[in-house]
């Protein structure tokens, strides 16, 4: 099981202290960081991805898992997706509270720092991150959900071959 933590900031700049704290906690073994991606929401509503830190991507799909997941979260409610993708997302059953928070609370001129971690106890990480402002929201992803998402992102068929997306 892994977790995705989103730190939402009301500005386009994420405080530099956040990155220093993530590095410190990772180096101290307090957080098992899989990936980290920064998203800035532009005035026109478009999102800009930034890989703010280089993280060894153990078990990752070349660093594409987190950006692909973020893309689904942000684009799915705003754009009509085909029925195949819609059914796949329903089958995967991602945390709707997390998705709802992302789609309702993140607006233009905001930034969000997404962390994909293996830790079950994320409370120390969230506490350290929110000391510098921002709002934290987290979502657990089971191994099964993660496998289905990886298949979806790679354009591979899930158990039902109609559930495939090419990005």
Description:
The chain has one domain (2-154). Helix content is 40%, strand content 21%. The protein has 6 helices and 5 strands; from the N terminus they run βαββαααβαβα. The chain has a 5-stranded antiparallel sheet, sandwiched between helices. A hairpin with a 5-residue loop joins β2 and β3 (47-50). The protein is globular.
SS-based class: alpha+beta
Question: First CA to last CA: what distance?
Answer: 25 Å
Number of separate domains: 1
Mean pLDDT: 78
Strand order of the largest sheet: 3-2-4-1-5
The low-confidence parts are: 56-61, 161-167
Shape: globular
How many alpha or pi helices? Answer: 6
Subunit organisation of the chains: single chain
Number of E-state strands: 5
Give helix and strand order, one letter per element, not per position. EHEEHHHEHEH
Strand content: 15-25%
Secondary structure: elements and pairs:
Layout: E1 2-9, H1 16-27, E2 33-41, E3 47-50, H2 65-78, H3 83-92, H4 96-105, E4 111-117, H5 123-130, E5 135-141, H6 143-154
Antiparallel strand pairs: 1-4, 1-5, 2-3, 2-4
Task: Describe the structure in brief.
With 167 residues, the protein is α+β, with helices and mostly antiparallel strands. Helices cover 40% and strands 21% of the residues.
Key descriptive features of the protein:
167 residues, alpha+beta, five-stranded antiparallel β-sheet, 6 helices, 5 strands, 40% helix, 21% strand, disordered C terminus
């Amino acid at each position: 099981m892994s977790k995705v933590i989103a730190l939402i900031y009301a500005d386009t700049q994420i405080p530099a202290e956040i990155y220093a704290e993530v590095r410190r906690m990772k180096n101290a073994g307090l957080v098992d960081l899989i990936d980290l991606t920064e998203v800035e929401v532009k005035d026109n509503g478009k999102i800009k991805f930034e890989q703010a830190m280089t993280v060894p991507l153990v078990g990752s799909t070349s660093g594409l898992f987190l950006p692909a997941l973020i893309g689904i979260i942000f684009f799915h409610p705003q754009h009509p997706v085909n029925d195949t993708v819609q059914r796949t997302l329903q089958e995967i059953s991602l945390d709707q509270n997390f998705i709802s928070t992302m789609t309702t609370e993140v607006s233009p001129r905001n930034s969000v720092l997404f962390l994909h971690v293996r830790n079950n106890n994320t409370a120390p990480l969230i506490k350290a991150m929110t000391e510098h402002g921002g709002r934290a929201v987290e979502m657990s992803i089971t191994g099964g959900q993660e496998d289905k998402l990886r298949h979806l992102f790679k354009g591979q068929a899930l158990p039902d071959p109609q559930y495939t997306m090419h990005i």
